[in-house]
Specification:
Elements lengths: L2 H14 L3 E4 L10 E5 L3 E7 L8 H12 L3 E5 L5 H9 L2
Parallel strand pairs: 3-4
Antiparallel strand pairs: 1-2, 2-3
Amino acid sequence: MREKYIEQKLVREVKKRGGLCEKWNSGSSGWPDRIVLLPDGKIGFVEVKAPGEKPRKLQVHRHEQLRALGYKVFVLDDMGQIGGIIDAIQTA
């Protein structure tokens, strides 16, 4: 399974729950691929990877920066994780 298909499924599932799943083009490297915006002001960040792939060192650093600011950050490499990630963002 390719990263692209996992990312497309994430976008569809977030939309089903009334949210937005926007691509993050920050102009600098290492930031998560997607910003998930859900009703009631819920926000989370998702790094999408092909199955079994891990974030690069710079990506891990960016994730730590966001978590230090109190944001939820997830690494998604399996379609089966999508529901749990969205649930975790909604209950934040």
